[in-house]
Amino acid sequence: MQILDAQKENKIWPLFRLGFRAFFLGGALFACLAMVLWLLTLSGTKVLPGIANPIWWHAHEMIFGFGLAIVAGFVLTAIQNWTGIPGVRGWPLALVAGLWLLPRLLMPLRGETNILVMVLDLFWLPLVAGMLARPIIQIKQWRNLFFVPLLSFLTLLNALSYYAALSHDWLLAERVFITAVLALSALIAVMGGRVIPFFTSRATATDKPRPLPWLEQLSLGSLWLATLGWLLLPRTGLFDGLLALVLLTAAFSNLARLARWNSKLTLNIPLLWILHLGYLFIPLGMLALAAALLQLGITVSLASHWLTAGALGAVILGMIARVSLGHSGRTLEIGKPMVMAFALIILSALLRSLLPMLAPGLTMMAYHGSALAWTLAFGVFSWLYSPVLTQPRADGRPG
């Protein structure tokens, strides 16, 4: 069922009428702010007075601050479509959004080891998981229940990242951050497999390719195995070689998966090609991480940015642009400024992940250029979509 009482719906500020509104806008604005602060930090300006380790802060906030905000907005919106039960709205949504926002604002001032910051940041995501679990269990839609243990796993990783900061164990921090990035990449692969071929088929009036069960199991299974392996396996030559093999399997199987989705038909449809290009960064990131483990001249940090700046940045920007239009009752059309934002996010990914490999002497220039392009991309989204996300649906329906 859906909310039918228009008077009740109209009493809710549009920003809190459905999860995508608050978390997409908040996540996009935070993506800009956090990257500007990082850019200033790279330039030697002290803008994070409470932070002891700015590199830890940057990695943590882009993953657990920005990335998980978008995930929360997506699942809290999708659950209404999956179950037919009205999604979280009003004061409960405002509460969980506020609990996400507070540690983002407090951490630069109070520090990454402040107790209040840690407690708040470890509380909001399990709250989202609970909001998600209730309607799924109510109608026994077990297929989508996997989001609940996934969000719980990401909460555990978040807790481990704080433990690493408290104990100054930066090797553990890197292991945790890469694991979280792999988990988010696997989530993109799961959801991408559901929606990207469907969107492409519908927009191009072509048949949706029938999934190959063995390829689905291999591509997704290898991603999840790589995620757990990165967290749990010892860092030795033998285990690094085994993990590299899993990553290579994930890379080639996901390339094969993407090749079946008719990407060539999307060249004139920006809302599609951004998703296809973004997905391409997943196998490229797997290849880069395998090369890092095999010590082929690339660091783990550099390799991981094929997934963070690349897959997460591009797929997130493409999805929030599309979902925001669809769920606000608008046509799925974008103008040149948003197309430019898509181009900027791809440029940001290539500057951050590819340029330092090709020209190590330009690494700092690559960092600055990538951060600037990222900020502009999400800044354009925030500017164009603020009216969409803070005003009622164009068709007058709830949501």
From TrEMBL:
Keyword Cell wall biogenesis/degradation attributed: no
Keywords for the protein's UniProt record, in alphabetical order: Membrane, Transmembrane, Transmembrane helix
The UniProt record lists the keyword Membrane: yes
Cleaved signal peptide residues: none
Membrane-spanning residues: 20-42, 62-79, 91-109, 115-133, 145-165, 177-200, 212-232, 238-259, 271-294, 306-325, 337-359, 365-385
Listed name of the protein: NnrS family protein
